[in-house]
Amino acid sequence: MHIPDATVARLPVYLRCLAMRTGTGTCSSEDLARTAGVNAAQVRKDLSLVGAQGVRGVGYEVNALRAEIRQALGLTHDFPVVIVGAGNLGRALASYGGFGEWGFSIAAILDVDARRIGGAIGGTTVQALTDLETVVDERDIEIGIIATPSSQAQAVGERLAAAGVRSILNFAPTVVRVDEAEVRVVDLSTELQILAYHLQKSALEQ
Amino acid sequence: MHIPDATVARLPVYLRCLAMRTGTGTCSSEDLARTAGVNAAQVRKDLSLVGAQGVRGVGYEVNALRAEIRQALGLTHDFPVVIVGAGNLGRALASYGGFGEWGFSIAAILDVDARRIGGAIGGTTVQALTDLETVVDERDIEIGIIATPSSQAQAVGERLAAAGVRSILNFAPTVVRVDEAEVRVVDLSTELQILAYHLQKSALEQ
């Protein structure tokens, strides 16, 4: 079944809400709506698209709903990920506690800096960027994360795509365009800007 | 004028698209729509809420549009930010190139680890967490970033709120609830989950 992109973008948010509810038997669409910041009708519509039906007055069974969303998102097998860049951001991502839960494993970390190569980050040894093609091939890597300085991001994106990586997550604060792969941008300042708006609004209302 | 939350969430995305267009005189709603991943009618509706009117067949004047969005988001003055946690993630955020452009400055970085305190990250000296209340008061800090291990996040959130911080951005992969401040969560795995969905879908279509 085709799931609209806007719903796909909300499903991870519902999963995160459900992850906070370990031990709870059921949760209502109102609960999910409040935590996810949408309305309850939207939640019910989104969840019906993944085949989940709540019970009126009771809600959704938490474990079953998690399984259905994970299935819809394709999180039923392990995704090996390569991180390019072993600076602060690459190190932070490699040791980030939120990835493993969803089936993402850090298969390799690459860098160009000889002082970083050979060092270990969270159990993974940093390899030379020259190993990129070999690593992607041997480990069947389909997802790459760019955590390099902005100046290197485009070149790394092209190289990942040429090696066969089909999905790229770009954390460098710059544009990366490659035709052969889907590139998504994570701009760490977006949420700060939203906070700034709410700060300004509440200041005006006082 | 009240701007709906969904529009507020898209405005930073438009700003990011515009930032990629430095030097370009105008841009169309179709251009912005493609880069932001929404439809052009939505872009025009969002931009009319911030008072921007495009010219049919020409588009929006880039510099004027940036100024109008920045004004609407309240990005017209500098926001001092405190980062709690000087580990990999805190260091990455402190040296992230994407914040300064939007008027966010790292006023202070705090940690509990004596080996980190006194060290410099991007020109800012790491201070002891015991300085939190003093720093927030002296620097008029309204935005705090939690970049601690999950186990410390809730306690840090409560302390930030008690010190008078009204907006908190939580990067720890856990829930932080405080009544006195607005807390937004940045889950670094959300975009990975969306990528995984698209990978799975294209595999099924082949």
What does this structure look like?
- Two copies of one chain form a homodimer.
- In chain A, helix 1 (5-19) packs antiparallel against helix 4 and helix 2 packs across helix 3.
- Chain A folds into two domains: 5-72, Orthogonal Bundle (Arc Repressor Mutant, subunit A), CATH 1.10.10; 79-185, Rossmann fold (3-Layer(aba) Sandwich).
- In chain A, strand 3, helix 5 (88-94) and strand 4 form a beta-alpha-beta unit.
- The first copy, chain A, has eight helices and nine strands.
- In chain A, the strands form two sheets. Chain A has a seven-stranded mixed β-sheet with strand order 5-6-4-3-7-8-9, sandwiched between helices. In chain A, strands 1-2 form a two-stranded antiparallel sheet.
- The first copy, chain A, has 206 residues and is α/β, with parallel strands linked by helices.
- The first copy, chain A, is globular, with a radius of gyration of 20 Å.
- At the A-B interface, helix 1, helix 5, strand 9 and helix 8 of A face helix 1, helix 5, strand 9 and helix 8 of B.
Main features:
homodimer; 206 residues; alpha/beta; Arc Repressor Mutant, subunit A; Rossmann fold; 2 domains; seven-stranded mixed β-sheet; two-stranded antiparallel ribbon; globular
